[in-house]
Amino acid sequence: MMNNPYYTVKNSWAPLFSALSIFFTMGLLSATMWKSGEGGFFVVALIMFSFMFMIWFKEIYREADSVSTMADKEIPLLEFSFLLFIVSEILFFTSFFWAYFHFSFSPDGEMGNIWPPFSLAPIPFFETPLLNTVVLLASGISITWAHHLFFSKSNWNNGMYLILVTMLLGAYFTFLQAQEYFESPFSINDSSYGSVFFTATGFHGLHIIVGTFLLLSVLVKFVKGVVPSLFQTHFELAAWYWHFVDVVWLFLYICIYWWGY
């Protein structure tokens, strides 16, 4: 097993913390639906997620040091695996859009046979959602600019600043999304509209948080001086992921916020 040309994964606590964080996140979701005691679940879930990302990044750095001499063999497999991951994410979000259009084209009598339901006031698409759209589009421009600087090798330091700008825009998007949730006139248990709305936008918000951590790992790799070829690969994968969540948000904005208003 040790004579193969590929990196052999070492024992790690990351899967355990990942499972615990998912468990407490589901508990948070359940408590939110029933509007009871969600504060404790939120704190524990946040701590578990933090530990998970810390351990995960540590394992990635160790792996990067170990495979520095075999990057040519590892990189194509890493890129292909990540591409398959994005395809699976596309199918994941497709299920939410499918559910949304299913309910919108055939609303039942309890909702007044209209969509959105007559008893529910949807969030105006020209307020916070529009600002969030501008923020994400700006973050897409900044990370594309950083990508150009890195791969043209013209100015890596400016590329780092642009990644930091992208992270700040992602954090601002998360703040606006949380504010929108707190001020929302409906909740996740208000009809099928509320369920699909909060599930779809909530999972997208979670992906924004994950993407922000991925960009943070890129910054740390740059500071630690990881092998340039591996650094560029990890940055490119993070950029793919960020562009993916940008596109998903555009579909969410058009289909759920604008078309469903």
Automatic annotation (TrEMBL):
Alphabetically ordered keywords of this record: Membrane, Mitochondrion, Translocase, Transmembrane, Transmembrane helix
Membrane topology label: Multi-pass membrane protein
InterPro entries for this protein: Cyt_c/ubiquinol_Oxase_su3, Cyt_c_oxase_su3_dom, Cyt_c_oxidase-like_su3, Cyt_c_oxidase_su3-like_sf, Cyt_c_oxidase_su3_a-hlx
Record flagged with keyword rRNA processing: no
Transmembrane segments: 12-34, 40-57, 77-101, 121-146, 158-176, 196-220, 240-260
Gene3D superfamilies: 1.10.287.70, Cytochrome c oxidase, subunit III, four-helix bundle (1.20.120.80)
Compartments it resides in: Membrane
CDD domains noted in UniProt: Cyt_c_Oxidase_III
One Pfam match: COX3
One example of a Gene Ontology biological process annotation: mitochondrial electron transport, cytochrome c to oxygen
Stretches assigned to the Heme-copper oxidase subunit III family profile domain: 2-261
Function summary: Component of the cytochrome c oxidase, the last enzyme in the mitochondrial electron transport chain which drives oxidative phosphorylation. The respiratory chain contains 3 multisubunit complexes succinate dehydrogenase (complex II, CII), ubiquinol-cytochrome c oxidoreductase (cytochrome b-c1 complex, complex III, CIII) and cytochrome c oxidase (complex IV, CIV), that cooperate to transfer electrons derived from NADH and succinate to molecular oxygen, creating an electrochemical gradient over the inner membrane that drives transmembrane transport and the ATP synthase.
Family designation: Belongs to the cytochrome c oxidase subunit 3 family.
Protein's name according to its UniProt entry: Cytochrome c oxidase subunit 3
Organism: Gordionus wolterstorffii
